[in-house]
Amino acid sequence: MNDDRPVLLETRGTCMHLTLNRPKALNALSHTMVRLLDEALARAEQDEAIHSVLLSGAGDRGLCAGGDIRALHDDARASGRASLEFWRDEYRLNARIAR
């Protein structure tokens, strides 16, 4: 994919298609990606025209490697504040997905 946005969003009829777009990092979730996914899912919940959400990963090496461990490690060596915010928002995203 040529688009450099970390999460791509496309609506196809009643389906919202979200694509994790960091194939070089095995689509590992950055804090920005977590926030974008949460915002998109919140919109889907409120939009009566959306009946399903499809999540895919760019590239051919896998859907998602999980959290961006390198960024979390670098933050922990600094202040650790961004890591706390990442985990808070990531758990909120997980709760939204579980609904």
Could you walk me through the main structural features you see in this protein, from its secondary elements to its overall organization?
By secondary structure, the protein is of the alpha+beta class. The protein has one domain (7-98): 2-enoyl-CoA Hydratase, Chain A, domain 1. It is 44% helix and 18% strand. It is built from three helices and three strands. The protein has helices at 31-46, 69-78, 81-98; strands at residues 7-12, 15-20, 52-57. Strands 1-2-3 form a three-stranded mixed sheet, with helices on one face. Helix 1 packs parallel to helix 3 and helix 2 (69-78) packs antiparallel against helix 3 (81-98). The longest helix is centred in the last third of the chain and has 18 residues, at 81-98. The termini are far apart.
